[in-house]
Fold this protein.
Amino acid sequence: MIQAQDIDANFKYDVAAQPGGEHIKVCYSCGTCTAGCPVTEADARYSPRRIIRQVLLGQRQAVLADPLIWYCETCYACSAYCPQNVKFGDVMRALREMAVAEGYYTPEFLQRIRNVDRLAHALRLQLVQAALEQSQEASPVSLESAADAVQESVKNTRV
Ligand code: SF4
Ligand code: SF4
């Protein structure tokens, strides 16, 4: 339960002052971003619309201390469909930078998350390449073998 003393009326202005956070105040909470977010599809606790509402309501600590802000995979699907051009993917980056700057997470933690991001992008690329090869070649590379290679990469990678 958020108490009145936990509200910071400047939070939205601070977010808007960050690179990437500039458009947050024009969000009108339509929910299009949440409807198209692949992370929300996998875990309903993650909701771009709710995070923006929390920012606009001044819930600084509740947002910046929440592990959910690290769930965004920066795919920018939310930005593509937003009628207000809020660019929520960039807002998430701004919130993460603020969370580290304000001591909720260490710079080392941020580096580990960046490593996970890089690994996730590389693995997605491998799977897409395998899918393309499967659709184009007479002797297809199976997605299952690509998935095995991806599993091996994950096992061998330290984050
Ligand atoms: S799609 Fe844009 S305007 Fe709609 S809730 Fe998301 S950020 Fe706000
Ligand atoms: S950029 Fe983040 S919030 Fe936006 S759709 Fe992708 S995962 Fe969801």
Summary: The chain has two domains: 4-101, 107-156. The CA atoms of residues 98 and 155 lie 31 Å apart.
